[in-house]
Amino acid sequence: MGLFNRKSKVDAASVASKDSRTVANPQSPLPSRTMNGISAFPSISTANIALPPAPDPAREPAAYLRSIHAVRERSRLVHEKAKRNNLTHFDVDPTKFGETAAYIVSIIKRDFAPEYNTIPPHGRWQHFDVGGRHRIDQLLTSWPSKIDAQERTRRLLDLFLVSVLLDAGAGTRWSYKSKESGKTYRRSEGLAVASLEMFKAGYFSGDPTQPYQVNASGLNRLSVGQLAIGLQVSEANPLAGMEGRASLLANLGEALQNTEYFGSTFRPGNMLDYLLSHPSTQASSVPVIMIPTLWSVLIDGLAGIWPASRTQVDGVSLGDAWPCSSMPSAPRAQSWENIVPFHKLTQWLCYSLMGPMTRLLNVQFAGVHLLTGLPEYRNGGLLIDTGLITLKPADTKRGLDAYRNNALVKGQPCMEVVPLFSTDDDVVVEWRALTIGFLDDLHVEVNRLLKLDGPDKLSLAQMLEAGSWKGGRELAEVSRPNTKQPPIMILSDGTVF
Question: Which pairs from 443-452 meet CB under 8 Å and 24+ separation?
Answer without folding.
Answer: 443/373, 445/97, 445/98, 445/101, 446/101, 446/104, 446/105, 446/108, 449/101, 449/102, 449/105, 450/105, 450/108, 450/109, 450/116, 452/116
